[in-house]
Write a structure and sequence with these properties.
Elements (H helix, E strand, L loop, with lengths): L3 E2 L24 E2 L5 E6 L2 E6 L28 H4 L14
Antiparallel strand pairs: 1-2, 3-4
C-alpha cells in the first residue's frame, strides 16, 4: 500500500465476495497512515481488516508506521516481513 488508497471503482467487481455491504463502502482517497479498516480477500472471502503490520516481536503498535510499505528487493531479508511473507498473504483490491 502506498500513502493513499482508492477502491471506489472496484466495488461492483468484488460485490459477490463481500460478506456484507459495509465491506465495500465507498472509499475515495483513503490515507494509509490513518491505518483504516480495509477490505481484503483471504481464502475467497472478503472482510475488513485493520491495515498495518505489527510483527510478533514488536513491543507496541508504534512500529506499524514503518511497516506500511515494503520493498520487493528486501522483503525476504527484513525482520518485519520475512516471517510473514510465506504464510500470511491476502489480496488487497484497489483501483488507485
Amino acid at each position: 500500500m502506498c500513502f493513499y488508497y482508492n477502491l471506489s471503482k472496484m466495488a461492483q467487481r468484488y460485490k459477490e465476495r463481500a460478506q456484507n455491504n459495509e465491506v465495500l463502502r465507498k472509499m475515495d482517497l483513503v490515507n494509509g497512515f490513518t491505518f483504516p479498516e480495509m477490505p481484503v480477500i483471504v481464502n475467497s472471502n472478503m472482510s475488513l481488516i485493520h491495515w498495518g503490520l505489527i510483527p510478533f516481536w514488536a513491543k507496541d503498535d508504534g512500529i506499524k508506521k514503518y511497516t506500511l510499505n515494503a520493498r520487493a528487493e528486501t522483503l525476504f531479508e527484513k525482520p518485519s516481513f520475512k516471517n510473514s511473507i510465506f504464510s500470511k498473504r491476502c489480496i488487497v483490491p484497489a483501483s488507485g
